[in-house]
Amino acid sequence: MAWMLLVLAGFFEVVWAYFMKVSEGFTQLLPSILTIVFMLASFALLSYAMKTLPLGTAYTVWTGIGAVGSFLVGIMILGEPASVMRMLAAVLIISGLILMKLSS
């Protein structure tokens, strides 16, 4: 159950990062509100997952999901560049997440 909550927390991190981007520095009301709502939900789920998962594992997986997810949203939705170096970096992050899961 903790792993499912952690993955959901990571997904919510991607959502709030996207809304933060489109809030244009918190000048757009709805995206600003959604940023805060998803941020709080993400932190709450992370906190709950940390009751049973080790700190290093939970935090690393949460930030990794957020980083790779935000990277993909940037490419697919915001039209950001997908260079070979950036793709390789994402693969390395995913590899680290897999190793972190296998180690716990």
From TrEMBL:
It comes from the Bacteria. GO terms for molecular function: transmembrane transporter activity. It is a multi-pass membrane protein. One of its GO terms (cellular component) is plasma membrane. The keyword Cell inner membrane does not apply. InterPro entries: EmrE-like, Small_drug/metabolite_transptr, Small_multidrug_res. It is found in: Cell membrane. The chain crosses the membrane at residues 27-46, 58-78, 84-102. Keywords: Cell membrane, Membrane, Transmembrane, Transmembrane helix, Transport. SUPFAM superfamilies: Multidrug resistance efflux transporter EmrE (SSF103481). Gene3D superfamilies: 1.10.3730.20. GO terms for biological process: xenobiotic detoxification by transmembrane export across the plasma membrane. Its main location: membrane. The keyword Glycoprotein does not apply. PANTHER family: GUANIDINIUM EXPORTER (PTHR30561:SF0), SMR FAMILY PROTON-DEPENDENT DRUG EFFLUX TRANSPORTER SUGE (PTHR30561). Belongs to the drug/metabolite transporter (DMT) superfamily. Small multidrug resistance (SMR) (TC 2.A.7.1) family. Gdx/SugE subfamily. This is Guanidinium exporter. It comes from Acinetobacter shaoyimingii. The lineage of its organism: Bacteria, Pseudomonadati, Pseudomonadota, Gammaproteobacteria, Moraxellales. The gene is sugE.
